[in-house]
Write a structure and sequence with these properties.
Length: about 325
């Protein structure tokens, strides 16, 4: 099954109207452009046939490119400082510099240091590939066995983007496996089975909240439950309660737990980091509402439940608004 590279399963009706291969190849081109493709017509895709290219206005050089190492980019708000991207597309679409076949999943690609990282699934293996962002040639791949099966018959691939931080890349699979892998060669550095360790009851569509890095911490929305939570019938998540592991901060180098907070269950929104009036905050729009806390020590300062008693499937990230104090 070809992948659509969308982050939220709730917009499946929109994705069903798009040709998956068209989405994949177009986004591959866009990422290549943002990473500073030179427009070299000699570049070849990793498929059997050469993709013809056309001569257009020159793109920014790779030296001027901006990395996109995390979900929603380096600033966490989906905004890029990149300029000079082609806005007026030819009638038959933008030129494809390269393209590769993808497995199942919904997480987007990330780019760092001229390398593109893409997380998908083929068969019973979740797979991270590291590609040259200009040529599409593969540097390495890392795989692990995934037994995730979606309760609503969506595909079984990852929902989260790879998160790149220096010489490490972090993966959070749909089944709850949290991996740290070396960006140089794909060697695994540590792993944490969060579903087993924290007693997570499978969410509506599995794990779908991409972690964030703050200093030496990896902040992850976990949402574990006490042992009796496992007795709840499938999809009856209103019967599931938390066990204090709603949000967990791991040492990004070792994978050791540094703190865990709240009884919130996990949603599909990623944590949002912000500095407000000189103070550092992390906001998480969890399944039961919005939580604001100090990302360094985990002290919870704020919680707002918009619909008390309701089981929510949050998929919108909170944003702090500059010039105001809203999230």
């Amino acid at each position: 099954m070809q992948r659509t590279l969308a982050a939220d399963k709730r917009i499946a009706s929109l994705r069903s109207r798009l040709c998956p291969l068209t989405v994949v190849t177009t986004i591959a081109w866009l990422i290549c452009t943002m990473a500073g493709c030179s427009g070299d017509d000699a570049l070849k895709p990793l498929v059997a046939e050469q993709v013809p290219t056309r001569t257009l206005a020159p793109y920014n050089s790779l030296a001027d490119a901006t990395d996109w190492p995390a979900f929603l980019g380096p600033t966490g708000d989906g905004k890029s400082s990149q300029t000079g991207i082609l806005l007026d597309w030819p009638a038959d679409g933008p030129p494809i510099r390269w393209h590769v076949e993808l497995g199942s999943g919904y997480g987007g690609a990330t780019v760092s240091g001229g390398r593109l990282f893409i997380f998908d699934r083929t068969g019973d293996e979740a797979r991270l590939r590291c590609l040259d962002s200009v040529t599409g040639r593969q540097h390495w791949q890392f795989t692990y066995v995934s037994d995730y099966r979606d309760l609503y018959n969506y595909d079984n691939g990852p929902r989260c983007c790879p998160l790149v931080d220096g010489d490490r890349v972090y993966l959070f699979g749909a089944e709850g496996m949290l991996h740290c892998v070396c960006t140089t060669d794909g060697e695994p550095l540590w792993v944490n089975d969060t579903m087993e360790r924290f007693g997570v009851v499978q969410n509506f569509f599995g794990v779908g909240s991409t972690p964030v890095v703050e200093g030496d911490l990896l902040i992850v929305q976990i949402g574990g439950s006490p042992p009796e939570g496992k007795q709840a019938p499938p999809r009856q998540l209103g019967l599931v309660t938390g066990n204090g592991s709603g949000i967990v901060a791991f040492d990004k180098r070792t994978g050791e737990v540094r703190y865990q907070i709240t009884d919130e269950l996990a949603s599909y929104a990623s944590p949002c980091l912000a500095t407000i009036d000189g103070r550092r905050w992390c906001f998480v729009f969890a399944r039961g509402g919005l939580v604001g806390f100090d990302p360094v020590n985990g002290r919870v300062e704020y919680r707002h439940a918009p619909r008390k008693g309701k089981v929510l499937r949050q998929s919108h990230d909170p944003f702090s608004l500059r010039g105001g104090h809203r999230a």
